[in-house]
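job 3f2a | input accepted
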Amino acid sequence: MDALVDQVAEMMRHDLAAKDIDFVCVPGARVVRVAADPVRMQQVVWNIIRNAVKFTPRGGQIRIQNTIDGNDFVMTCTDSVVGIEAAALARIFVAYEQGSTGTYQRYGGLGLGPAIPMGIVEGHGGKLAAAGGGPDKAATFTFRLPLGGRRHNPAPLLGK
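job 3f2a | predicted structure (160 res):
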């Protein structure tokens, strides 16, 4: 998974540079493999980092940390974003939802950003969560995948 994060960071290199974002990756899991579809995991990591880049202001920071927690691989992505309102956290993984009208007007998009990786992660037996301290506070997206075990069949991308 550490190598996968590196690959995605390289794919996003120009976007990170264009906004002068400090990208910090703390590889600590030392996991070579998880029981997951590598293409889908790349899609999850890309989506999480891409959304962080989209909402991180110029000169901000994005920090990725990979760890092991019990029998799970855990990746956290913390950024210096515009913030996630408490009311939006409850619906952030619902397809076509936007954090607020102002967010949509400023950043655009369909509201699919977090919904797509949620379906993929759950389809692999994992979990995806978001946390934030409100407007102008950092946001953290965390996804967990079980180590080893059998591979799960991916769920539909936008629902069950």
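job 3f2a | The first strand starts at residue 22 and ends at 27.
job 3f2a | closed
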